[in-house]
Amino acid sequence: MSNERKVAIVTGASQGIGAALVKGFRDRNYRVAATSRSITQGSDPDVLAIPGDIADPETAERVVREALARFGRVDTLLNNAGIFIAKPFTDYTAEDFQGKIATNLAGFFHITQQAARVMLAQGSGHIVSITTSLTDQAVAGVPTVLANLTKGGINSATKALAIEYATQGIRVNAVSPGIIKTPMHAPQRHEFLANLHPVKRLGEVKDIVDAVLFLEGASFVTGEILHVDGGQSAGH
Question: What predicted TM-score, i.e. pTM, was given to this entire model?
Answer without folding.
Answer: 0.95
